[in-house]
Amino acid sequence: MARQPFIAGNWKMHKTVAEAEAFVQGLLPRIYDADHCDVALCTPFTALQAVVDSTRGSRIEVYAQNMHHEAQGAFTGEVSAPMLTELDVHGVVLGHSERRQLFGETDKALQLKVPAALDAGLQVILCVGETEEEREAGDTERRLRHQVDEGLEKVPTERLGDVVIAYEPIWAIGTGQVATPEQAQEACAFVRALVGQRSKEEADRGRVLYGGSVKPDNAAELLGLPDVDGALVGGASLDVEQFEALVNAAKG
Q1: Residue 60 confidence (pLDDT) above 90
Q2: For 2, 69, 78, 132, which has the most beta carbons within 10 A of its beta carbon?
Q3: Which residues pair with 94 in a beta bridge?
Q4: Which CATH number belongs to the domain containing residue 66 in this structure?
């Protein structure tokens, strides 16, 4: 099954509203005809409305970087799915390793967040990945199995393919280290196989991204792997020229 490549830029805690609008103005003319792949910008909450407005009618989709599973309530500092959909946000990143490691995000929480986002009409990028210690101990598959199974447990089988899964080895995020093509393919194929244990059709339909120090000089090799359908990009997504190069690399 042919899967449309997907390049998503995760800005993390970068860019004011003015900087975000300037970035979009610089990017749009460069990728207006990039119909070979889907493109998303995952922006800070403060820039969501501005980026949504700046990209209306374009190929660029806008994702939030987190959300709470409840629609409303006494959850100071949190944002709900209805708050995101009101802004015309397209989707949300859930379970990024920085949320897990720095802010205590659990697989049990994601078990609630993923279906809540889908039910609200948001697209989901679910992040999974192992630490360096887990890889060295041979625990990569055990860790990925737990994250994928927990994160998708309450997702109806017929919607599994709607969830984009981003494999991001934690040891490669922002470190300059990159998984070898063999490591990336092996892990992404394993993630797909985990989904396939519930539905091979949905596993074939769903997209698996690689993330972790993806840059223009290594993107083509990674994106050419059979089970890598795109990239979740950190640092390189902050620069217009580098991000354009990554979108172009998805042409194959």
Answers
A1: yes
A2: 69
A3: 126
A4: 3.20.20.70
Q: Is 1 within the bounds of a domain?
A: no
Our count of domains for the chain comes to 1
User: Tokens for 114?
Assistant: 């993923």
Q: Evaluate the CA torsion angle 123, 98, 52, 167 in order and state its sign.
A: negative
Choose the catalytic residue: 68, 69, 90, 96.
96
- Residue 43 has what pLDDT? 98
DSSP secondary-structure letter at 161? G
Q: Give the pLDDT band of residue 156 (cuts 50, 70, 90).
A: very high
Residue 234 lies in a domain: yes
Q: How far apart are CA 170 and CA 75, in angstroms?
A: 28
Domain annotation covers residue 54: yes
**Catalytic one of 105, 168, 202, 244:** 168
Domain residues for the domain of 10 are 6-249
Q: Which residue has the tokens 């944002």?
A: 79
168 inside domain: yes
Q: State the pTM of this model.
A: 0.97
Let me know if 168 is a catalytic residue: yes
